[in-house]
Amino acid sequence: MTKGQTTKKVCVGNVALGGGEPIRIQSMTTTKTADVEKTVAQIVALEKAGCEIVRVAVSDEADALAIKEVTAKIKTPLVADIHFSPKLAVMAIENGADKVRINPGNIGGETEIRYVADCIKTHHIPVRVGANTGSIEKNFLEKYGRSAEALVESALYNVRLLEKFGVEDIVISVKASDVPLTVRSYALLAQKTQYPLHLGVTEAGTTEAGVVKSAVGIGSLLLSGIGDTIRVSLTDDPVREVYAAQHILRACGMEENYVEVVSCPTCGRCAWESMSLANKVTEFVRPYKKKAKIAVMGCVVNGPGEAKDADLGIAGGNGVCMLFKKGETYKKIAACDAEEEFLKEIRLLLDGE
Ligand code: SF4
After folding, report:
1. Is the same domain home to 209 and 338?
2. Does the pLDDT of residue 4 top 60, yes or no?
3. Last residue of a domain, one of 251, 285, 300
């Protein structure tokens, strides 16, 4: 893909990705898929958080069969993640998966690949293929070592195996846990293909390290115009993955309709508990899909001035808090009423327009 070109558009259920569509947010359930009740509950929580495509693991026939019941109870398109088994891939598709994540290289020979490819074509669904540092095809690992070339060639080898049997709607990923390697791999891949790219840093880790690694890796690729869908991998509740993905898109300037909460780091001038209020406000405004900026600042000395572009803000003082709009204070409230009063003002601002 040369700069300025868009990728091919593919549809996962009713969600299109690539071809200039918005960057789609994905996540993956952590439940046993065959446990329909738990799986649906988690997917509904993910939908509510803003997840647009959800992936489930299919490790046995019970999981593959459960897809029928799960998809009947959710709105989000569902991707079935299958390794090694052509039979499970076909079962998952026949039970309603909107996309499959497979590597044809590990599901068998030509007969098995043709069997799955025919099913994919009959049901008109896309496939994600990819390589990560743990699954590079042996010959590419020997030829290139553990490198961007090995990841890209390994992924493209799997793409060609599907193309050979007429599969055209393909999404590709080349994930590593090493951020610079991930970024180099996707940049190289983007030069070689027009298929949409699924971005992610694999085994990113627990929340703090994982969010940073994903933000740096995914964020730098998005800012250079690479990527069509993203998944933040965290060893945490997958809802956290969706929140982190949203923050990455926002930080990259790719999502505007949200309420931004700015808050100061506090310092020795801070005279009240601004940190806990900042966290509460962040949760409170999460469901709103409109562009606005709310500030929670530690002191009245510098707060209103430092946050003068905020539509609404609060700054604390000695037992008293100031409410301000665009840097101009307009109301004094007792610090003990700060939370209740400020949330009321936010509701007025966001609901009252
Ligand atoms: S707004 Fe006040 S408390 Fe917050 S960092 Fe600035 S000077 Fe410190």
Report:
1. no
2. no
3. 251
Residues 193 and 318 in one domain: no
Residue 137 belongs to a domain: yes
Q: Which of 184, 169, 179 is nearest to 200 (CA)?
A: 179
The C-alpha R_g of the chain, in whole angstroms, comes to 23
Question: Would you say the CB of residue 264 lies under 6 angstroms from ligand 1?
Answer: yes
In total, how many domains does the chain have? 2
Decide if 215 is inside a domain.
yes
Distance 267 CA to ligand 1 centre (A): 6
Nearest-10 crossing angle of helices 179-192, 148-163:
40
Tell me, rounded to whole angstroms, the distance of Cα 316 from its chain centroid.
35
Q: Is there an atom of ligand 1 within 6 Å of 263 CB?
A: no
Question: From the CB of 179, is ligand 1 less than 6 Å away?
Answer: no
Going by CA atoms, what residue is nearest to atom 5 of ligand 1?
A: 266
Asked if residues 25 and 246 have their Cβ atoms less than 8 Å apart, the reply is yes
170 with 303, same domain? Answer: no
What would the pLDDT profile of 108-166 be if each residue is shown by its tens digit? 888 999 999 999 999 999 999 989 888 888 898 999 999 999 999 999 999 999 999 99
- Index of the ligand 1 atom closest to the CA of residue 270: 3
Domain encompassing residue 84? 10-251
pTM recorded for the entire structure: 0.91
